Amino acid sequence: MRIRLHFWVISSLLAMTACSRGEPSKDPAPVTPQKHPVNVEKSLAGSRAGQRLLPKIKLKRAETALLDGKHEEALKLYEEMSQETSLTAEARSQLFSGQAEALFHLRRFDESVSMWERVIALRPDDPFAHQNLALVLAESGKLREAVAQLDKLLKLDPDVLAARVDMVNWLKKLDTPQEKLIAAAQAFATARSHVEKRLDAALEQQQSDEIVRLLGYLIEVPSEILTPAQEEKCLTHATATVREKAGLLAVRGDAGKARMKELLAKEDDPTVRMLWQKALAGDTGVSAP
Description:
By secondary structure, the chain is mainly alpha-helical.
């Protein structure tokens, strides 16, 4: 109250002085507030709720840098995030995975291997963590270790088709006996047949997570496509993620492309629309590890 009263008294005195000199009184010019840049992360750090959100914001920034190919920047952001003391197990897993991928692209293979091992320690039953570790080992020239890692992966899920393909290719490079190569190729054919049966069952039972997983298995092998019946069910599925994945497979055939163009006019989900449009333009966004 004192501050407001003091301002009123000064204004009155100025007005009286102006009148005594015969000058018209003027209202004081409006003060334009100065804009100062807001440090969102610093602001969030000051509250308990903000501290819970901060790791997610940092993680998103790091993932964006990684997707943009800014691997040094992404690694720096992940390292900053690693200083957080309140990360959940899931957040730590995402952190280690991101660091591992950035290190891989920077060709710091030993460090990438170490990070994937940390992911596996948190998610021992995740076949993709094992798969990525195998890929890094292979890229660094450690083919025998990579094959051993694939063996562990295929015990978790024998239907990971890309792992079956890698197994055949890496065994060839290791001059494996012919009978073992034939067995590895036959194992791929068996797994492919099993994936088709699993997908039909998942579509029948409306198991969206299983459908998405199996579509991912097929997407990783560029030569694979869906049957016409599976393609139609997946492209028109109620779950947006299923439609996204199905689009990446459907563009591999002329009939699938034509059907996607028809369905685009009715598609309400903006993410599905964007992904389908990019896929039809030739950008599938599929990369490894």
